[in-house]
Recover the amino acids of this structure.
Protein backbone atom coordinates (compact mmCIF):
# COMPACT_ATOMS: atom_id res chain seq x y z
CA UNK A 1 0.00 0.00 0.00
CA UNK A 2 2.93 2.41 0.77
CA UNK A 3 4.39 1.51 -2.62
CA UNK A 4 1.25 2.73 -4.31
CA UNK A 5 1.34 5.95 -2.31
CA UNK A 6 4.94 6.58 -3.37
CA UNK A 7 4.08 5.82 -6.99
CA UNK A 8 1.32 8.45 -6.90
CA UNK A 9 3.64 11.08 -5.42
CA UNK A 10 6.34 10.43 -7.99
CA UNK A 11 4.10 10.52 -11.06
CA UNK A 12 2.03 13.61 -10.35
CA UNK A 13 3.56 17.04 -10.98
CA UNK A 14 2.97 20.18 -8.86
CA UNK A 15 0.85 19.81 -5.73
CA UNK A 16 1.62 16.14 -5.90
CA UNK A 17 1.76 15.49 -2.20
CA UNK A 18 -1.68 17.00 -1.50
CA UNK A 19 -3.40 15.12 -4.32
CA UNK A 20 -1.71 11.81 -3.64
CA UNK A 21 -2.63 11.92 0.03
CA UNK A 22 -6.30 12.33 -0.86
CA UNK A 23 -6.06 9.48 -3.31
CA UNK A 24 -4.34 7.40 -0.70
CA UNK A 25 -7.11 8.06 1.80
CA UNK A 26 -9.70 7.03 -0.78
CA UNK A 27 -7.70 3.95 -1.67
CA UNK A 28 -7.30 3.02 1.98
CA UNK A 29 -11.03 3.48 2.60
CA UNK A 30 -11.91 1.29 -0.37
CA UNK A 31 -9.43 -1.32 0.76
CA UNK A 32 -10.90 -1.28 4.25
CA UNK A 33 -14.41 -1.57 2.83
CA UNK A 34 -13.37 -4.51 0.68
CA UNK A 35 -11.69 -6.16 3.65
CA UNK A 36 -14.75 -5.52 5.82
CA UNK A 37 -17.02 -7.01 3.15
CA UNK A 38 -14.79 -10.06 2.92
CA UNK A 39 -14.83 -10.52 6.70
CA UNK A 40 -18.62 -10.02 6.77
CA UNK A 41 -19.09 -12.58 3.99
CA UNK A 42 -16.93 -15.09 5.82
CA UNK A 43 -18.78 -14.49 9.09
CA UNK A 44 -22.18 -14.79 7.39
CA UNK A 45 -21.15 -18.02 5.68
CA UNK A 46 -19.84 -19.48 8.92
CA UNK A 47 -22.92 -18.38 10.89
CA UNK A 48 -25.27 -19.76 8.22
CA UNK A 49 -23.49 -23.07 7.90
CA UNK A 50 -23.33 -23.31 11.67
CA UNK A 51 -27.13 -23.37 11.83
CA UNK A 52 -26.93 -26.90 10.44
CA UNK A 53 -25.78 -28.16 13.83
CA UNK A 54 -28.40 -26.24 15.80
CA UNK A 55 -30.39 -28.60 18.04
CA UNK A 56 -34.10 -27.79 18.30
CA UNK A 57 -36.90 -30.02 19.66
CA UNK A 58 -38.56 -32.02 16.87
CA UNK A 59 -36.66 -30.05 14.21
CA UNK A 60 -33.99 -31.28 11.82
CA UNK A 61 -32.18 -28.63 9.81
CA UNK A 62 -31.33 -30.24 6.46
CA UNK A 63 -29.91 -27.25 4.56
CA UNK A 64 -28.17 -24.10 5.78
CA UNK A 65 -26.48 -22.31 2.93
CA UNK A 66 -25.63 -18.85 1.69
CA UNK A 67 -27.43 -17.91 -1.53
CA UNK A 68 -25.46 -15.24 -3.37
CA UNK A 69 -27.16 -12.14 -4.70
CA UNK A 70 -29.38 -12.91 -7.68
CA UNK A 71 -28.60 -16.63 -7.64
CA UNK A 72 -31.86 -18.13 -6.36
CA UNK A 73 -33.41 -19.36 -9.58
CA UNK A 74 -32.64 -23.08 -10.05
CA UNK A 75 -35.73 -25.04 -11.09
CA UNK A 76 -38.03 -22.71 -9.20
CA UNK A 77 -38.04 -20.01 -11.83
CA UNK A 78 -36.36 -16.64 -12.03
CA UNK A 79 -36.70 -14.69 -8.80
CA UNK A 80 -34.83 -11.63 -9.98
CA UNK A 81 -31.98 -9.94 -8.18
CA UNK A 82 -32.63 -11.12 -4.65
CA UNK A 83 -30.15 -9.90 -2.04
CA UNK A 84 -27.75 -12.39 -0.52
CA UNK A 85 -29.42 -14.49 2.17
CA UNK A 86 -28.96 -17.51 4.38
CA UNK A 87 -31.39 -20.21 3.31
CA UNK A 88 -32.46 -22.63 6.03
CA UNK A 89 -34.52 -25.71 5.21
CA UNK A 90 -35.86 -27.80 8.07
CA UNK A 91 -38.17 -30.73 8.71
CA UNK A 92 -40.45 -30.56 11.74
CA UNK A 93 -41.97 -33.63 13.41
CA UNK A 94 -44.23 -32.51 16.28
CA UNK A 95 -46.06 -35.86 16.05
CA UNK A 96 -44.94 -39.34 15.07
CA UNK A 97 -46.80 -38.97 11.76
CA UNK A 98 -45.67 -35.41 11.01
CA UNK A 99 -43.36 -34.50 8.13
CA UNK A 100 -43.52 -30.72 7.87
CA UNK A 101 -41.02 -28.86 5.71
CA UNK A 102 -40.28 -25.20 6.22
CA UNK A 103 -37.86 -22.65 4.83
CA UNK A 104 -36.53 -19.56 6.53
CA UNK A 105 -34.71 -16.90 4.51
CA UNK A 106 -32.38 -14.69 6.53
CA UNK A 107 -30.95 -11.53 4.94
CA UNK A 108 -27.21 -11.34 5.58
CA UNK A 109 -27.21 -7.54 5.32
CA UNK A 110 -29.61 -4.82 6.41
CA UNK A 111 -31.91 -7.05 8.45
CA UNK A 112 -34.72 -4.83 9.68
CA UNK A 113 -35.10 -6.70 12.96
CA UNK A 114 -38.42 -8.20 11.88
CA UNK A 115 -39.81 -11.58 10.89
CA UNK A 116 -42.76 -12.37 8.63
CA UNK A 117 -44.40 -15.73 7.96
CA UNK A 118 -46.48 -16.23 4.81
CA UNK A 119 -49.57 -18.37 4.32
CA UNK A 120 -50.65 -21.00 1.79
CA UNK A 121 -53.58 -21.59 -0.57
CA UNK A 122 -56.34 -24.21 -0.78
CA UNK A 123 -55.01 -27.69 0.13
CA UNK A 124 -51.76 -27.04 -1.71
CA UNK A 125 -48.71 -28.32 0.14
CA UNK A 126 -45.55 -26.47 -0.86
CA UNK A 127 -43.09 -23.93 0.45
CA UNK A 128 -44.07 -20.69 -1.29
CA UNK A 129 -40.75 -19.31 -2.48
CA UNK A 130 -42.43 -16.59 -4.51
CA UNK A 131 -44.15 -15.20 -1.42
CA UNK A 132 -40.80 -14.87 0.38
CA UNK A 133 -39.22 -12.67 -2.29
CA UNK A 134 -40.78 -9.32 -1.39
CA UNK A 135 -40.31 -9.50 2.39
CA UNK A 136 -36.70 -10.66 1.97
CA UNK A 137 -36.04 -7.76 -0.41
CA UNK A 138 -37.43 -5.41 2.24
CA UNK A 139 -35.09 -6.74 4.92
CA UNK A 140 -37.39 -9.21 6.68
CA UNK A 141 -36.44 -12.67 7.81
CA UNK A 142 -39.21 -14.67 6.11
CA UNK A 143 -40.56 -18.21 6.35
CA UNK A 144 -43.02 -20.54 4.64
CA UNK A 145 -44.16 -24.11 5.25
CA UNK A 146 -45.64 -26.89 3.13
CA UNK A 147 -48.09 -27.54 6.04
CA UNK A 148 -46.95 -31.15 6.27
CA UNK A 149 -47.61 -32.56 2.81
CA UNK A 150 -46.90 -32.17 -0.88
CA UNK A 151 -49.49 -31.84 -3.63
CA UNK A 152 -52.72 -29.95 -4.13
CA UNK A 153 -55.34 -32.31 -2.70
CA UNK A 154 -56.45 -33.38 0.77
CA UNK A 155 -55.53 -37.00 0.12
CA UNK A 156 -52.76 -36.60 2.71
CA UNK A 157 -55.46 -36.73 5.40
CA UNK A 158 -56.78 -40.17 4.49
CA UNK A 159 -55.98 -42.29 7.54
CA UNK A 160 -53.60 -39.66 8.91
CA UNK A 161 -55.39 -37.51 11.51
CA UNK A 162 -52.14 -35.97 12.76
CA UNK A 163 -51.38 -34.67 9.28
CA UNK A 164 -54.81 -33.02 9.24
CA UNK A 165 -53.91 -31.26 12.49
CA UNK A 166 -50.60 -30.19 10.95
CA UNK A 167 -52.42 -28.68 7.98
CA UNK A 168 -55.17 -27.17 10.13
CA UNK A 169 -52.98 -25.19 12.53
CA UNK A 170 -49.90 -26.93 13.89
CA UNK A 171 -47.50 -26.44 10.97
CA UNK A 172 -47.70 -22.65 11.05
CA UNK A 173 -47.25 -22.50 14.81
CA UNK A 174 -44.30 -24.91 14.80
CA UNK A 175 -42.71 -22.94 11.96
CA UNK A 176 -43.07 -19.76 13.98
CA UNK A 177 -41.41 -21.31 17.03
CA UNK A 178 -38.52 -22.79 15.05
CA UNK A 179 -38.01 -19.62 12.99
CA UNK A 180 -37.68 -17.42 16.05
CA UNK A 181 -35.12 -19.77 17.60
CA UNK A 182 -33.07 -19.81 14.40
CA UNK A 183 -33.29 -16.02 14.09
CA UNK A 184 -32.05 -15.63 17.67
CA UNK A 185 -29.05 -17.82 16.86
CA UNK A 186 -28.14 -16.18 13.55
CA UNK A 187 -28.37 -12.51 14.45
CA UNK A 188 -26.65 -10.56 17.19
CA UNK A 189 -29.61 -8.19 17.50
CA UNK A 190 -32.91 -9.27 19.01
CA UNK A 191 -36.07 -9.80 17.00
CA UNK A 192 -38.26 -6.70 17.40
CA UNK A 193 -41.51 -7.58 15.63
CA UNK A 194 -43.12 -10.61 14.03
CA UNK A 195 -45.91 -10.69 11.45
CA UNK A 196 -48.07 -13.14 9.53
CA UNK A 197 -49.71 -12.47 6.19
CA UNK A 198 -51.85 -14.76 4.06
CA UNK A 199 -54.87 -14.81 1.78
CA UNK A 200 -57.58 -17.43 1.14
CA UNK A 201 -56.38 -20.57 2.95
CA UNK A 202 -53.60 -18.29 4.18
CA UNK A 203 -56.29 -15.99 5.56
CA UNK A 204 -57.76 -18.97 7.39
CA UNK A 205 -54.29 -19.73 8.81
CA UNK A 206 -54.02 -16.10 9.88
CA UNK A 207 -57.30 -16.21 11.79
CA UNK A 208 -56.34 -19.55 13.34
CA UNK A 209 -53.13 -18.02 14.67
CA UNK A 210 -54.96 -15.10 16.28
CA UNK A 211 -57.45 -17.48 17.87
CA UNK A 212 -55.27 -20.40 18.96
CA UNK A 213 -51.79 -18.88 19.38
CA UNK A 214 -52.37 -15.24 20.33
CA UNK A 215 -48.72 -14.65 21.33
CA UNK A 216 -47.16 -15.89 18.07
CA UNK A 217 -47.38 -12.65 16.08
CA UNK A 218 -47.56 -8.94 16.86
CA UNK A 219 -49.59 -8.26 13.73
CA UNK A 220 -51.62 -10.37 11.32
CA UNK A 221 -53.02 -9.78 7.82
CA UNK A 222 -55.91 -12.09 6.94
CA UNK A 223 -56.96 -11.72 3.31
CA UNK A 224 -60.20 -13.32 2.05
CA UNK A 225 -60.11 -15.60 5.10
CA UNK A 226 -61.65 -19.01 4.52
CA UNK A 227 -62.56 -19.11 8.20
CA UNK A 228 -65.73 -21.16 7.66
CA UNK A 229 -63.81 -23.82 5.76
CA UNK A 230 -66.45 -26.54 6.03
CA UNK A 231 -69.24 -24.07 5.29
CA UNK A 232 -67.60 -22.91 2.07
CA UNK A 233 -67.12 -26.55 1.03
CA UNK A 234 -70.80 -27.27 1.59
CA UNK A 235 -71.96 -24.07 -0.14
CA UNK A 236 -70.02 -24.82 -3.33
CA UNK A 237 -71.08 -28.48 -3.44
CA UNK A 238 -74.72 -27.59 -2.81
CA UNK A 239 -74.73 -25.72 -6.12
CA UNK A 240 -72.49 -28.14 -8.02
CA UNK A 241 -74.59 -31.16 -7.04
CA UNK A 242 -77.73 -29.48 -8.31
CA UNK A 243 -76.18 -28.33 -11.60
CA UNK A 244 -74.47 -31.63 -12.29
CA UNK A 245 -77.88 -33.29 -12.18
CA UNK A 246 -79.69 -30.46 -14.01
CA UNK A 247 -77.74 -29.50 -17.09
CA UNK A 248 -80.45 -27.17 -18.40
CA UNK A 249 -80.17 -25.09 -15.22
CA UNK A 250 -76.50 -24.27 -15.82
CA UNK A 251 -75.32 -20.76 -16.57
CA UNK A 252 -72.92 -20.57 -19.47
CA UNK A 253 -70.49 -17.70 -19.91
CA UNK A 254 -72.92 -15.55 -21.89
CA UNK A 255 -75.58 -16.16 -19.23
CA UNK A 256 -73.20 -15.16 -16.44
CA UNK A 257 -72.28 -11.98 -18.30
CA UNK A 258 -75.96 -11.19 -18.66
CA UNK A 259 -76.54 -11.56 -14.91
CA UNK A 260 -73.42 -9.54 -14.08
CA UNK A 261 -74.43 -6.62 -16.29
CA UNK A 262 -77.96 -6.65 -14.91
CA UNK A 263 -76.66 -6.67 -11.33
CA UNK A 264 -74.37 -3.73 -12.05
CA UNK A 265 -77.24 -1.81 -13.60
CA UNK A 266 -79.48 -2.51 -10.61
CA UNK A 267 -77.01 -1.84 -7.79
CA UNK A 268 -74.16 0.33 -9.04
CA UNK A 269 -75.74 3.57 -7.78
CA UNK A 270 -76.46 2.25 -4.27
CA UNK A 271 -73.21 3.76 -2.96
CA UNK A 272 -74.00 7.15 -4.49
CA UNK A 273 -71.82 6.85 -7.57
CA UNK A 274 -72.30 5.16 -10.94
CA UNK A 275 -68.83 3.81 -11.67
CA UNK A 276 -69.26 0.21 -12.81
CA UNK A 277 -68.73 -1.13 -9.27
CA UNK A 278 -71.18 -2.39 -6.67
CA UNK A 279 -70.00 -0.72 -3.48
CA UNK A 280 -72.72 -2.16 -1.21
CA UNK A 281 -73.52 -5.61 -2.64
CA UNK A 282 -74.83 -7.01 0.63
CA UNK A 283 -77.65 -4.44 0.42
CA UNK A 284 -78.23 -4.97 -3.29
CA UNK A 285 -81.85 -6.04 -3.90
CA UNK A 286 -81.27 -7.20 -7.45
CA UNK A 287 -83.90 -9.79 -8.47
CA UNK A 288 -82.65 -12.03 -11.30
CA UNK A 289 -86.28 -12.78 -12.19
CA UNK A 290 -86.19 -9.65 -14.36
CA UNK A 291 -84.02 -11.67 -16.77
CA UNK A 292 -86.50 -14.51 -17.16
CA UNK A 293 -87.66 -15.12 -20.69
CA UNK A 294 -91.21 -14.23 -21.61
CA UNK A 295 -93.25 -15.58 -24.46
CA UNK A 296 -92.29 -12.64 -26.65
CA UNK A 297 -88.62 -12.32 -25.59
CA UNK A 298 -86.46 -11.33 -28.53
CA UNK A 299 -83.21 -10.76 -26.63
CA UNK A 300 -80.93 -12.96 -24.56
CA UNK A 301 -82.70 -14.03 -21.38
CA UNK A 302 -82.73 -16.80 -18.77
CA UNK A 303 -85.05 -19.75 -18.34
CA UNK A 304 -86.87 -20.16 -15.06
CA UNK A 305 -84.41 -22.92 -14.13
CA UNK A 306 -81.46 -20.63 -14.74
CA UNK A 307 -83.05 -17.84 -12.70
CA UNK A 308 -83.41 -20.32 -9.86
CA UNK A 309 -79.72 -21.16 -10.17
CA UNK A 310 -78.78 -17.51 -9.73
CA UNK A 311 -80.98 -17.28 -6.65
CA UNK A 312 -79.42 -20.44 -5.23
CA UNK A 313 -75.89 -19.06 -5.67
CA UNK A 314 -76.85 -15.80 -3.95
CA UNK A 315 -78.70 -17.61 -1.16
CA UNK A 316 -77.17 -18.24 2.29
CA UNK A 317 -78.89 -21.30 3.78
CA UNK A 318 -78.63 -21.93 7.50
CA UNK A 319 -76.51 -24.67 9.02
CA UNK A 320 -79.20 -26.70 10.81
CA UNK A 321 -76.76 -27.68 13.57
CA UNK A 322 -75.53 -24.19 14.48
CA UNK A 323 -78.05 -21.74 13.08
CA UNK A 324 -75.16 -19.98 11.34
CA UNK A 325 -75.71 -18.90 7.74
CA UNK A 326 -73.58 -20.70 5.17
CA UNK A 327 -72.75 -17.69 3.05
CA UNK A 328 -73.57 -17.48 -0.65
CA UNK A 329 -71.91 -15.30 -3.27
CA UNK A 330 -72.91 -11.70 -3.97
CA UNK A 331 -74.00 -9.65 -6.99
CA UNK A 332 -70.90 -8.54 -8.87
CA UNK A 333 -69.13 -11.91 -8.59
CA UNK A 334 -70.83 -13.52 -11.61
CA UNK A 335 -67.89 -13.28 -14.01
CA UNK A 336 -65.98 -15.65 -11.73
CA UNK A 337 -68.71 -18.30 -11.69
CA UNK A 338 -68.41 -21.51 -13.72
CA UNK A 339 -70.82 -23.86 -15.45
CA UNK A 340 -71.18 -25.70 -12.13
CA UNK A 341 -71.56 -22.60 -10.00
CA UNK A 342 -68.66 -21.55 -7.77
CA UNK A 343 -65.04 -21.58 -8.97
CA UNK A 344 -63.28 -24.82 -9.86
CA UNK A 345 -61.02 -24.42 -6.84
CA UNK A 346 -63.97 -24.00 -4.47
CA UNK A 347 -65.58 -27.10 -5.92
CA UNK A 348 -62.36 -29.14 -5.86
CA UNK A 349 -61.53 -28.29 -2.26
CA UNK A 350 -65.14 -29.00 -1.32
CA UNK A 351 -65.01 -32.48 -2.84
CA UNK A 352 -61.66 -33.13 -1.14
CA UNK A 353 -63.06 -32.00 2.20
CA UNK A 354 -65.80 -34.61 2.09
CA UNK A 355 -63.92 -37.35 0.26
CA UNK A 356 -60.81 -37.42 2.43
CA UNK A 357 -61.53 -35.58 5.66
CA UNK A 358 -65.23 -36.09 6.41
CA UNK A 359 -65.98 -39.58 5.08
CA UNK A 360 -62.47 -40.88 4.43
CA UNK A 361 -63.48 -42.73 1.28
CA UNK A 362 -61.67 -42.23 -2.01
CA UNK A 363 -64.72 -43.45 -3.88
CA UNK A 364 -66.96 -40.73 -2.39
CA UNK A 365 -68.31 -38.47 -5.13
CA UNK A 366 -70.42 -35.40 -5.47
CA UNK A 367 -73.59 -37.37 -6.22
CA UNK A 368 -73.61 -38.48 -2.59
CA UNK A 369 -73.67 -34.98 -1.16
CA UNK A 370 -76.68 -33.91 0.92
CA UNK A 371 -76.49 -30.40 2.30
CA UNK A 372 -78.81 -30.81 5.29
CA UNK A 373 -76.89 -33.73 6.78
CA UNK A 374 -73.40 -33.32 5.35
CA UNK A 375 -72.82 -29.76 6.59
CA UNK A 376 -73.50 -31.00 10.11
CA UNK A 377 -71.24 -34.02 9.65
CA UNK A 378 -68.42 -31.88 8.27
CA UNK A 379 -68.41 -29.45 11.18
CA UNK A 380 -68.54 -32.24 13.75
CA UNK A 381 -65.67 -34.07 12.05
CA UNK A 382 -63.57 -30.92 11.80
CA UNK A 383 -63.93 -30.16 15.50
CA UNK A 384 -62.22 -26.74 15.19
CA UNK A 385 -59.23 -28.12 13.27
CA UNK A 386 -59.59 -26.28 9.95
CA UNK A 387 -62.45 -23.93 10.77
CA UNK A 388 -61.34 -20.64 12.34
CA UNK A 389 -64.60 -19.46 13.86
CA UNK A 390 -63.73 -18.75 17.51
CA UNK A 391 -64.76 -15.14 18.16
CA UNK A 392 -62.95 -14.71 21.48
CA UNK A 393 -59.82 -12.82 20.41
CA UNK A 394 -59.30 -11.29 23.85
CA UNK A 395 -55.85 -12.81 24.42
CA UNK A 396 -54.59 -11.59 21.06
CA UNK A 397 -55.97 -8.12 21.73
CA UNK A 398 -54.64 -8.06 25.31
CA UNK A 399 -51.17 -8.91 23.98
CA UNK A 400 -51.34 -5.79 21.83
CA UNK A 401 -51.92 -7.77 18.63
CA UNK A 402 -53.29 -5.98 15.57
CA UNK A 403 -55.43 -7.73 12.97
CA UNK A 404 -56.13 -6.41 9.47
CA UNK A 405 -58.61 -8.45 7.45
CA UNK A 406 -59.65 -7.67 3.89
CA UNK A 407 -61.96 -9.22 1.33
CA UNK A 408 -63.14 -8.46 -2.19
CA UNK A 409 -66.88 -7.84 -2.50
CA UNK A 410 -66.82 -9.65 -5.88
CA UNK A 411 -64.99 -12.75 -4.66
CA UNK A 412 -66.44 -15.85 -6.43
CA UNK A 413 -64.37 -18.38 -4.45
CA UNK A 414 -64.82 -17.51 -0.78
CA UNK A 415 -67.93 -15.51 -0.05
CA UNK A 416 -67.17 -11.99 1.24
CA UNK A 417 -70.04 -12.49 3.66
CA UNK A 418 -67.74 -15.01 5.33
CA UNK A 419 -65.56 -12.08 6.45
CA UNK A 420 -68.37 -9.70 7.40
CA UNK A 421 -70.31 -12.39 9.25
CA UNK A 422 -67.29 -13.32 11.36
CA UNK A 423 -66.47 -9.67 12.05
CA UNK A 424 -70.02 -8.98 13.19
CA UNK A 425 -69.91 -12.01 15.50
CA UNK A 426 -66.67 -10.71 17.05
CA UNK A 427 -68.32 -7.31 17.53
CA UNK A 428 -71.21 -9.03 19.29
CA UNK A 429 -68.83 -11.04 21.47
CA UNK A 430 -67.07 -7.89 22.67
CA UNK A 431 -70.21 -5.79 23.00
CA UNK A 432 -69.68 -3.31 20.19
CA UNK A 433 -67.42 -2.12 17.40
CA UNK A 434 -65.53 0.39 19.53
CA UNK A 435 -64.39 -2.41 21.85
CA UNK A 436 -62.37 -4.01 19.03
CA UNK A 437 -61.66 -1.06 16.71
CA UNK A 438 -58.20 -0.46 18.17
CA UNK A 439 -57.20 -4.06 17.47
CA UNK A 440 -59.20 -5.47 14.54
CA UNK A 441 -60.29 -3.78 11.33
CA UNK A 442 -61.91 -5.29 8.25
CA UNK A 443 -61.58 -3.65 4.83
CA UNK A 444 -63.95 -4.59 2.02
CA UNK A 445 -62.88 -3.86 -1.57
CA UNK A 446 -65.61 -3.09 -4.16
CA UNK A 447 -65.16 -4.96 -7.44
CA UNK A 448 -62.22 -7.01 -6.16
CA UNK A 449 -62.12 -10.74 -6.82
CA UNK A 450 -60.42 -13.49 -4.85
CA UNK A 451 -57.37 -11.97 -3.13
CA UNK A 452 -56.76 -9.82 -6.22
CA UNK A 453 -58.13 -9.08 -9.70
CA UNK A 454 -61.48 -7.75 -10.81
CA UNK A 455 -62.50 -4.30 -12.08
CA UNK A 456 -62.21 -2.64 -8.68
CA UNK A 457 -59.22 -1.40 -6.67
CA UNK A 458 -57.37 -4.57 -5.80
CA UNK A 459 -53.73 -3.78 -5.07
CA UNK A 460 -52.42 -2.37 -1.78
CA UNK A 461 -49.55 -2.85 0.69
CA UNK A 462 -51.27 -4.33 3.72
CA UNK A 463 -48.02 -5.38 5.41
CA UNK A 464 -46.61 -1.83 5.53
CA UNK A 465 -49.92 -0.56 6.89
CA UNK A 466 -49.84 -3.26 9.56
CA UNK A 467 -46.25 -2.33 10.50
CA UNK A 468 -47.28 1.28 11.00
CA UNK A 469 -50.17 0.24 13.22
CA UNK A 470 -48.12 -2.16 15.34
CA UNK A 471 -44.93 -0.12 15.62
CA UNK A 472 -46.23 3.45 15.73
CA UNK A 473 -49.75 2.96 17.01
CA UNK A 474 -51.20 4.62 13.90
CA UNK A 475 -54.38 2.73 13.09
CA UNK A 476 -55.45 2.71 9.41
CA UNK A 477 -58.42 5.02 8.94
CA UNK A 478 -58.46 3.82 5.33
CA UNK A 479 -56.29 1.88 2.90
CA UNK A 480 -55.58 3.32 -0.53
CA UNK A 481 -56.00 0.61 -3.16
CA UNK A 482 -55.33 0.89 -6.87
CA UNK A 483 -56.43 -0.81 -10.06
CA UNK A 484 -54.01 -1.23 -12.94
CA UNK A 485 -54.33 -1.85 -16.66
CA UNK A 486 -51.14 -3.08 -18.32
CA UNK A 487 -49.20 -2.03 -15.25
CA UNK A 488 -50.53 1.54 -15.23
CA UNK A 489 -52.79 2.81 -12.44
CA UNK A 490 -56.14 3.90 -13.83
CA UNK A 491 -58.15 4.07 -10.62
CA UNK A 492 -57.58 4.44 -6.87
CA UNK A 493 -60.02 4.28 -3.98
CA UNK A 494 -59.93 4.25 -0.21
CA UNK A 495 -60.91 0.97 1.40
CA UNK A 496 -62.75 1.82 4.59
CA UNK A 497 -62.98 0.06 7.96
CA UNK A 498 -66.16 -2.02 7.80
CA UNK A 499 -69.01 -1.15 7.90
CA UNK A 500 -67.93 2.27 6.60
CA UNK A 501 -67.93 2.77 2.84
CA UNK A 502 -66.03 5.11 0.51
CA UNK A 503 -68.28 7.97 -0.61
CA UNK A 504 -67.49 10.39 -3.43
CA UNK A 505 -67.15 13.96 -2.16
CA UNK A 506 -68.75 15.37 -5.30
CA UNK A 507 -65.73 17.08 -6.81
CA UNK A 508 -62.58 15.93 -8.57
CA UNK A 509 -61.90 12.78 -10.52
CA UNK A 510 -63.91 9.72 -9.52
CA UNK A 511 -60.78 7.68 -10.24
CA UNK A 512 -58.69 9.28 -7.48
CA UNK A 513 -58.87 8.14 -3.87
CA UNK A 514 -58.38 11.66 -2.49
CA UNK A 515 -61.85 12.57 -3.72
CA UNK A 516 -63.55 9.99 -1.50
CA UNK A 517 -64.20 9.87 2.22
CA UNK A 518 -65.13 7.01 4.55
CA UNK A 519 -68.60 7.28 6.03
CA UNK A 520 -70.85 5.10 8.13
CA UNK A 521 -73.60 3.40 6.12
Amino acid sequence: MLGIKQLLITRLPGGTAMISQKLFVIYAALSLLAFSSLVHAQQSTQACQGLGSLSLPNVEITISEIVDKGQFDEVRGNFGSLPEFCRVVATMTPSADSDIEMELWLPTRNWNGKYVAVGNGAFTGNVRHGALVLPLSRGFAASSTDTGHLGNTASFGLGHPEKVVDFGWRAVHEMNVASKQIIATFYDDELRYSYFTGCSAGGRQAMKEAQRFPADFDGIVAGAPGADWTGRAAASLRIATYLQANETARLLEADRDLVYNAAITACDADDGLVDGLIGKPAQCDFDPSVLQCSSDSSTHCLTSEQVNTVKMIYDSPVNPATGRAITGLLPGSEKGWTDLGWTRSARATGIDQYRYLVYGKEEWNIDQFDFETDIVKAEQTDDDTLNALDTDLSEFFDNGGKLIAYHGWSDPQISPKNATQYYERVVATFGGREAIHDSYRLFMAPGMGHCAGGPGPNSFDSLSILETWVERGEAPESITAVHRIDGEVDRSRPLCPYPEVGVYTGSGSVNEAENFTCRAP
Observations:
- The chain is about 35% helix and 15% strand.
- The mean pLDDT is 91.
- The radius of gyration is 27 Å.
